[in-house]
Amino acid sequence: MKAILITRKGGPEALELREVPTPVAGSGEVLIKVKAAGLNRSDIYSRTSDKYGAPSGMEIPGLEVSGTIAACGAGATRYKEGDAVCALVTGGGYAEYVAVPEGQCLPVPEGSDLEAAAALPETVFTVWLNVFQVGGLRPGEHLLVHGGSSGIGVTAIQLATALGSSVYVTAGSEEKCRWCETLGAVRAVNYKTGDFEEVLKDTGIDVILDMTGGDFTIKNIRLLREAGRMVFINSMRGREGVIDIGAIMRKRLLVTGSMLKPRDTAFKTALAASVEKNVWPLVTRGMVRPPVHAIFPLEEAAKAQQLMESGEHRGKILLRVS
Asked: I need a labelling partner for 119 at 20 to 30 A (CA). Which of 25, 93, 280, 290 fits?
């Protein structure tokens, strides 16, 4: 089969289209013929950082796919050949086929396009886990999302709004800010030209989903009201930030974080079941639909990652595989 390999640590040129053996579905797994694969920031880290992925490269990136079931391994009984699914995978998505534990697959929601369904797994799983299961966002509370125009951001806006919360976001341009507001954000702040803390100081934030870290951290702590929760999922502005321990104690704040990729199959299977029960009905009704910014052919994976690195996109970037 054809697949994109990270041949070494480095720039986008390290991504090469090669012929590799087609995987086989093992026990409890299904083999998916991939229609499309979603891009995520983790894919870039796998290519550029020695702390992510194989030290010498030679791995297939990609954490989410959509496609049809090509084969079922022993013990995999929910799906049959030809069924349309999307799936959370632990690498291997930039390829014509990928083997994945059956429990990490979900049926493509009714009314969803098979190709566009590749935009769902990583963003929806991440938001449901971190905003609702870890952050405990409840109807009527206020959510602040940094990186509001990203795939994660737009999913958080739509999902939290659909479930009765008010959403505030930061983004890097006026155009992105206004776009986030069309998706349901109450207020979007351009962090490059304004101070989001000053703008939102009287809002009262209950939960913050933060992929920035760095100098935003202390501002986040000051914005949270009593019993507020802050969940880190990345640290794009720096892994170190100032905290006010007194404020954390006084306001009884919860500051935590998580990474989904390294979690085991049992955890992801349970998360998938929760997503199917609580989020999939909203997707079917059109209340949660991550916008797709651009679709590149598989062989142009390097261009797709360059776009993601530039920050010029709004929403998801996909690779068309078949």
From this structure: 25
